[in-house]
Amino acid sequence: MVKKTLILTALFLLVLGNAASALAQAGPSFAQAWSGQSDKEKESFIRGVVSGVRILCMDITVGLGKAADPENVNKQFRECFNAYVVDNPAKMIATMNELYADKKNAFIPFDGIYKIAGLKMNGQNVDKLLEQSRQYAEGLKKKLEKEVKK
Question: What is the enclosing helix (H) or strand (E) of 134?
Answer without folding.
Answer: helix 127-149
